[in-house]
Specification:
- By secondary structure, the chain is of the alpha/beta class.
- The protein is built from eleven helices and nine strands.
- The strands form two sheets. The protein has a six-stranded parallel sheet, sandwiched between helices. A three-stranded antiparallel sheet has the order 7-8-9.
- Helix 7 packs across helix 8 and helix 9 runs antiparallel to helix 10.
- The termini are far apart.
- The structure holds pantoate.
- Pantoate (PAF) binds next to strand 2 and helix 7.
């Protein structure tokens, strides 16, 4: 496995391949990332993973400075998972000047959910992903479904810019108790880690209620938020949305969509200082 930090060297190395498959990451890898690598590996003739903690997608009060940087361990894990090339540029390589050209996704995708609670997040994500795509020039890229809205935004960006890249979603990996794997789980104290499963359980309960015919989405959301808040969480949202556009389904649509694999429940909530997100397709 090659570890490359310079764009020119990456391009030079990849010029020997026809169909790079790509998994972008911010490092601090867990089994969820490694599963994406294994999923992507047979889709191309060379597997590239990137590791870059992207300043542009963090708000000033967020955890950019403390985000764990674990390059050595990440490279060892990537090698074991079958990765061929790690692209790990420093900030001065990817952003040699202030990045003033940016990709601004449309507000109907970003004014809601993560975009509402993390203004500018998707501009930061799209900008770095576009730039990483320009560096790697992949033919296929795999993104985790745990970041459900991110996957949708990137799919639409690639479609609108006619980029010749297949965007594939990778299933969320979970711990034995159901907690979605995330680099941010490392921030949890052991008591918080025991409590953390409540987020996925709340989403499961919402999905179960929808499957068994509940149509009062607003009440379902309020109950779920209140139940987590009563346990000491600070929920940003627990919500039922249409898979196709992440909009709230109308009352009439709920039953039809619940039977027709058209809904997703999504949640984001803070436990102590750690913000966790998760989702479940219904
Ligand atoms: O999902 C992530 O880890 C990041 O948002 C990504 C796609 C690597 C862009 O920095």
């Amino acid at each position: 496995m090659k570890i490359i930090t310079k764009i020119a060297e990456l391009r030079d190395h990849l010029s020997a391949f026809q169909r790079p498959a790509f998994v972008p990451t911010m490092g601090n890898l867990h089994d969820g990332h490694l599963a994406l690598v294994r999923q992507a590996k047979p889709l191309g003739d060379v597997l590239v993973a990137s590791i870059f903690v992207n300043r542009l997608q963090f708000l000033p009060h967020e955890d950019f400075d403390t985000y764990p940087r674990t390059l050595q361990a990440d490279c060892a894990a990537l090698q074991a998972a079958g990765c061929d090339v790690v692209f790990a540029p420093g900030e001065a390589e990817l952003y040699p000047q202030q990045q003033t050209f940016k990709i601004n996704p449309p507000s109907e995708l970003t004014d809601l959910l993560e975009g509402h609670f993390r203004p500018g997040f998707f501009t930061g994500v799209c900008t770095v992903v576009m730039k990483l795509f320009a560096c790697v020039q992949p033919r296929v890229a795999v993104f985790g479904q745990k970041d459900y809205q991110q996957l949708m935004v990137i799919r639409q960006m690639v479609q609108q810019f006619a980029l010749p890249i297949d965007i594939i979603g990778g299933p969320t990996l979970r711990a034995a108790d159901g907690l979605a794997l995330s680099s941010r789980n490392n921030y949890l104290s052991s008591a918080e880690r025991r409590e953390a499963v409540q987020l996925s359980q709340a989403l499961q309960a919402m999905a179960g209620a929808l499957r068994s015919g509940t149509s009062d989405v607003a009440a379902l959301e309020q109950q779920a938020m209140a139940a987590l808040a009563a346990r000491g969480w600070q929920p940003d949202y627990l919500t039922v949305r249409q898979r196709s556009n992440l909009q709230t389904p109308g009352a009439a649509e709920v039953a039809a969509l619940a039977n027709d694999a058209g809904l997703v429940v999504l949640g984001a909530a803070k436990l102590g200082k750690t913000r966790l997100i998760d989702n479940l397709e219904v």
